[in-house]
Amino acid sequence: MIQGRGRGRRGNGADELMGLDFGAMFRRQAAASSYRPRSAAEWDARAVARSRREKGSDYVREFLARVDFSGVRTAIDMGCGSGNLAVPLARRLDKVWAYDFAPGMLRLLKAAAAEAGVEDRIAARRLAWEDDWSRVPRADLVICSRAMDAEDMQRALSKMCAKAKVRCCVTLHAGGFFLDGELRTVLRRPAVPRPGWLYAVNMLAQMGYLPRVDYLETHGGLSYADVDEFVGSVRWRVGELTAAEERRVRAYAGRLPRGEDGGILHRHDFRWAFVSWDV
């Protein structure tokens, strides 16, 4: 783990690295990336399927194991999705404010909170990174789990810092691509990765924080009801497929193993950078 001990300010001496404009670099890389941001409607269309697929993931356990809860009784979960983290946080803390820009995700969150008996500890609200955050309360802990889809990462990190009383945690993809090597080979198209965790770490350093970095490995994969759903998930990540690409993806899906329920099992291990910092 790369360790930091809290907040610090850089001195007056020249530092070439600290003089780089990581915000502009992030925006250029995001514009060149093969992966585009998704709308709230697109996330809503995938809400139920995504929630179902992630129930067997070890990600939540690994994320929570890395959070320093000292001095923390309240939390904000930005990009909360269907509540995979907000619900277990509510079991542990006094209050959780859960925000997402997709109303379908928030409906699933509310249902999960009611089922878990923690609906009185979760306040679910619709909010996007680009929105006005002036009415967002401050909380001890502010997290963003795999949801840093902001057009301006530096501004998003600043918003997290402004609302945190104790510390922040964010996970960002550390593998470069959201498709595994086999699928990229099947597609036979060049892929430009989205800007990842290194941009966030350097931005935070420029803002005067000392980020700590750990790595979170998730093993296993996702389950898909049928070939059509699998093809749809590939299209979601890379955009429209040519007829030849779709034929190859369908053939690949047909060779994948099946689960007990008959669903297609696609193994894809992920590596995430878990970045945390005290405020």
The topology string of helices and strands comes to HHHEHEHEEHEHHEEHHEE
Helix and strand composition category:
alpha/beta
Large-scale geometry = globular
How confident is the prediction overall: mean pLDDT? 87
Strand order of the largest sheet: 3-2-1-4-5-9-6
Unreliable stretches: none
The description of the largest β-sheet is: 7 strands, mixed
Cα(first) to Cα(last) distance is 19 Å
How much beta, percentage-wise?
Answer: 15-25%
Number of helices: 10
Descriptive tags:
279 residues; alpha/beta; 7-stranded mixed sheet; two-stranded antiparallel ribbon; 10 helices; 9 strands; 38% helix; globular
Describe this structure in words.
The chain has ten helices and nine strands. The protein has helices spanning 22-32, 40-53, 59-66, 86-92, 103-116, 153-163, 181-187, 197-206, 227-238, 243-255; strands at residues 74-78, 95-100, 122-126, 139-145, 164-173, 212-218, 221-224, 264-267, 270-278. Helix 1 packs antiparallel against helix 8, helix 4 packs parallel to helix 5 and helix 9 (227-238) crosses helix 10 (243-255). Helix 6 links the parallel strand 4 (139-145) and strand 5. The strands form two sheets. A seven-stranded mixed beta sheet has the order 3-2-1-4-5-9-6, with helices on both faces. Strands 7-8 form a two-stranded antiparallel sheet. It is globular. The two termini are 19 Å apart. Helix content is 38%, strand content 20%. It is α/β, with parallel strands linked by helices and 279 residues long.
